[in-house]
Design brief:
Layout: E1 8-14, E2 18-19, H1 21-31, E3 41-46, E4 49-53, H2 56-65, E5 77-83, E6 89-96, E7 100-106, H3 109-125, H4 138-162, H5 168-196, E8 200-201, H6 218-244
Parallel strand pairs: 2-8
Antiparallel strand pairs: 1-7, 3-4, 3-5, 5-6, 6-7
Helix pairs in contact: 5-6
Length: 246
Amino acid sequence: MSTPTQRTEKRLIFQNCQLGNSDLKRVFALASEGTDPASVEVSTQRNSTRYSASDLDGLINSLNSANVGGDLKLWAYVLVEASDTTGDRRVSLSVETRRVEFSVSGKDETWVLGQAARLQLFLEQAGGRVVIEQKASPWFYIWSLLGAGWILGVLGLMQDRGGKEAGKDFWIYVMAPTFGPIFLLLFAWLFFTSRAARPILRVTEDVTRGSVWSRLNAANRIALAGLIATTIIGVAAVVVTVFSGQ
């Protein structure tokens, strides 16, 4: 009769990770710590052929020297697996563009939880996040409150100045020039930030780090700067109009 065994296992799935060549090398080295170096296998699949090597550089060289079609810079996934000599410690890390999943298991609970925590921290610093529950961003509520307060404030000032309710001219000449650029700016910023935070997998080259602005190309920077300038001019014009009694 076989002896019952007990193992600790930790498994997490991440989205929006931005990983380049140097990032993959570091996270693979981190994942395989505490295992037998001879057991480490890095692999991928292209078309119907599976390629494997003992490290990432060897895998890249294997693909570059093979007669395969398509862009060799585009990878569907890359997988690293490792274990110790007794099989008590096992780790696997699967990296795709939109999904990164790791599994750490073993009889040593301290090692399992420690490795999982270190991998989680690394992936979070690479932009990844564990999706548990979708919640509205706090900025949604902040922008909503600011927008409602601005509308009510301008309406109140216009009524005090003119002594009557604001008509269609108010919406055409005040609200549209003000909130048109503001809403465009907000949507543009959300669009650009979502693009800057999109998941990236570049196995053969590194990923550019830095702020959202630094990761935008020249055309996107010009468009965003133009919207900012238009918004500032529109708000300034409304403020001058309202407080001058026009």
